Amino acid sequence: MALSCPECESEVSPPEPVRQHEVLECPDCRAELEVIAVEPVVLALAPEIEEDWGE
Predict the structure, then answer these.
(1) Is this model's pTM higher than 0.90 or not?
(2) N or C: which end of the chain has fewer CB within 10 A?
(3) 39-49: string of b/e by CB count within 10 Å (b at 16+)?
(4) Strand order in the sheet with 23-25
């Protein structure tokens, strides 16, 4: 199964089985991608990790 990167439109091949909220890396632009749906598989840019400042 080949999907396209939402950042650079490059082909991304997720591992089987695909799990929701799994984080993948685009082989071309190195963007972190999150699987937001599995039926059908949908990729989106993973949210940036924010510091919690001890909260």
Answers:
(1) no
(2) C
(3) eeeebeebeee
(4) 23-25, 32-38, 41-45
- 3-state DSSP of the chain: CCEECCCCCCEECCCCCCCCCCEEECCCCCCEEEEEEECCEEEEECCCCCCCCCC
C-alpha distance from residue 30 to each of 17, 25, 40, 54, 55 (Å): 21, 6, 23, 29, 30
The distance from CA 25 to its chain's CA centroid, rounded to whole angstroms, is 6
Buried b (16+ CB within 10 A) or exposed e, 17-32: ebeeebebebeeeebe
